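Input record (one chain):
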Amino acid sequence: MDNTNKDNTSSQTTSSGQEQSNNISAIGNIIFDYLDRCRFLFYPEQWNHIFLDFSKNDIFTLIFLYRKREVNVTEIADYLKVPLNTVTGVISRLEQKELVIRERSKLDKRVVCVRLDRLGLQMIEEELQQFSEYYLRIMEELTPDEKTLLFGLIDRIFNMLDRDIHSRTGDHLTRSQPVKRITIE
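The corresponding structure, as predicted from the sequence alone:
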């Protein structure tokens, strides 16, 4: 191969790399613009400080407990896709804030069950009320066709993300595996 071909290949690679860098930069600008436009959602006065006082795992654990009422620690770890020791720390923090109750199962003393305490239930219901108000205000502004389009796009995006995650990890974003329960006599 002569030097001319090497130079052409090198400039094509550089050009392709520069083009990819420009695309990433443009995508970054789009993402940051949307984040700037919705940053008001994260202002402390918008919520009861749930986003400021809790980690992501704390929030998702509270939501999971609200939806399931009572679960064991392994179910929380499976839901969050984190190790059991991480869940133990999450539960300990939430217990200290008097939001959850951790106790041994009455059916199997080896199993630790977790549920929302009265304060945790109240907090989630208050946040859910605020989310519902935003949701209803948005839905009032949209036509039936826009609602159909919006939910169709959201479903399509989550299905694409689920396929992508599944192809890389074997996990599913939107479907969880049921925990097998073994009866011990």
